[in-house]
Design goal:
- The chain is of the alpha+beta class.
- The protein folds into three domains: 98 residues, Ribosomal Protein S5, domain 2, CATH 3.30.230; 38 residues, no CATH class; 140 residues.
- Helix content is 60%, strand content 14%.
- The protein is built from eight helices and six strands.
- The strands form two sheets. It has a four-stranded mixed beta sheet. Strands 5-6 form a two-stranded antiparallel ribbon.
- Helix 1 links the parallel strand 3 and strand 4.
- Helix 4 runs antiparallel to helix 5 and helix 4 runs antiparallel to helix 8.
- The chain is elongated, with a radius of gyration of 34 Å.
- It starts with 6 loop residues before the first strand and ends with a helix.
């Protein structure tokens, strides 16, 4: 079953001195793009988070946000550089009113506060909890994509059915196009030669009619369009991601419709071809949402 590229998932973990929250949202993209935002102290985990997403998602822009409040696993978020603070105080004491500078103002100066890096062992322990939370949020996001995909499948299947009916009408009307042209040609020639001694043989009319029939023959385009619709419908139930293949088929459908439109010399067929283009364009808009 196809999946949408739009989804959202959230997971939350709360302890005595901390809370962890993971939010994952995904939107349309022709390719896969994963971006993870984690607390500065866990920068090294960003690539691991992105790796988990890439294991389950093949297409779309996916944004992961990990938020932490409080102290997790005993790790401190920042460290104060006491030596830098004392040096600032010593130099400020030599300046008039320098001793009135508040500690909060000192901590804004360069070098007074740094990031507290966790050891590899601490990060490994942290990752056990973080990875579980990411997987939980990821599963929620994928479930939403699956539900959206079910709805999307119905919309696409309805579009294919409308196209099938239109193509069937074109197939039925195509032979009549030549017969109508024959009648119009004969009537036109009769009008032009009325009152003259000039005669046009049936052979000449047949030759002109044969040229028209060959030039306006759209049977191959109809057959290919039918084939594309069959393939499109079968892909809607595929287990693997098929968004790019559906995009390709839509492009081919539009190409066949354009060719039919350029060949059709009948107003009725031309209108049907225009309806086909409209339906194919609707399919294209919906396919852009498929993973």
């Amino acid at each position: 079953m196809i999946r949408s590229m739009t989804g959202y998932g959230r997971a939350h973990l709360e302890g005595e001195s901390f809370t962890l929250t993971v939010e994952i949202r995904s939107v349309n993209n022709r390719f896969l793009k994963v971006s993870a935002r984690v607390p500065e102290v866990w920068d090294r985990l960003a690539r691991d988070v992105e790796g988990l997403v890439k294991e389950r998602v093949s297409r779309g822009s996916v944004y992961v946000t990990l938020r932490k409040l409080g102290t997790f696993a005993g790790a401190r978020e920042f460290l104060v550089n006491r030596g830098a603070v004392e040096e600032y105080r010593r130099q400020l004491a030599e300046i008039e009113s320098g001793e009135d500078v508040k500690l909060s103002e000192l901590l804004l100066l360069p070098g007074t506060v740094g990031t507290a890096d966790e050891t590899d062992a601490e990060l490994d322990e942290t990752w056990k909890s973080v990875s579980g939370l990411v997987r939980e949020a990821l599963e929620a996001m994928l479930e939403m994509r699956r539900r959206e995909g079910e709805h999307l499948r119905g919309v696409l299947a309805e579009g294919v059915e409308r196209l099938r009916r239109l193509v069937g009408d074109i197939r039925t009307g195509a032979p009549e196009m030549v017969a109508d042209y024959r009648d119009r040609l004969a009537a036109r020639v009769g009008e032009l030669l009325a009152g003259t001694d000039v005669e046009v043989s049936q052979t000449d009319l047949a030759r002109e009619l044969a040229i028209f029939a060959q030039r306006s023959d759209i049977r191959e385009e109809i057959d290919r369009l039918d084939s594309h619709l069959e393939q499109f419908l079968s892909l809607l139930d595929a287990e693997e991601p098929v968004g790019r293949r559906l995009e390709f088929l839509v492009q081919e459908m539009f190409r066949e419709a354009n060719t039919m439109g350029s060949k059709a010399a009948d107003v009725g067929i031309a209108r049907l071809v225009l309806d086909v283009k409209t339906e194919v364009d609707r399919l294209k808009e919906q396919v852009m949402n498929v993973e």
